[in-house]
Amino acid sequence: MQASREAVFDASPEAIMEVLADVDALPSWSALHRRIKVIDRYPDGKPHHVRATMRLLGITDKELLEFHWGDHWMVWDAEPNLQQRGQHVEYNLTPEVDKTRVRFDVIVDLAMPVPEFLIKRARTLVLDVAIERLQRRVMSRSRHR
């Protein structure tokens, strides 16, 4: 399964990266994330390895994620498990005057065949969390400052 989406956020890249780096808060704004446990962090405090419990289309999946960070990008890769042989996620941010263009890409190598209608539904849910709910979270944090 592959999916991508872009949107322009009315926020700085730094504000968006701050929300992305706060993985402990994911279950509070992402309907897909049930539990998050940061295993270790980089010297700057950003998460390096994270255990995540996800629920999508009635299936609960436990994942071990490895994060990598740049000033305007974030990547995570998931270790293989029963549901998937691999997962690669990228956020790339491009500053635009007073806004930021956010691009989200995900590739999931499923471990078993899944009907196309379920893949389409999962893709819609993942993209909603990855962009729309992220945007809401960024904007709500910006208003509270």
Oligomer: single chain
In total, the number of domains comes to 1
Q: Give the strand order of the largest sheet, numbering strands 1, 2, ... along the chain.
A: 1-7-6-5-4-3-2
Shape: globular
Q: Report the CATH topology name.
A: Alpha-D-Glucose-1,6-Bisphosphate, Chain A, domain 4
**Low-pLDDT windows of residues:** none
Based on CA atoms alone, the radius of gyration comes out at: 15 Å
Order of helices and strands: EHHEEEEEEH
CATH homologous superfamily descriptor: START domain
Strand fraction equals: over 45%
How much helical structure, as a percent, in the residues?
25-40%
Class from secondary-structure proportions = alpha+beta
**For the residues shown, what is the average pLDDT?**
94
- The CATH class assignment is Alpha Beta
Terminal CA distance: 38 Å
Number of helices: 3
Protein name: Cyclase
Pfam families: Polyketide_cyc2 (PF10604)
Organism: Mycolicibacterium fortuitum
InterPro entries: Polyketide_cyclase/dehydratase, START-like_dom_sf
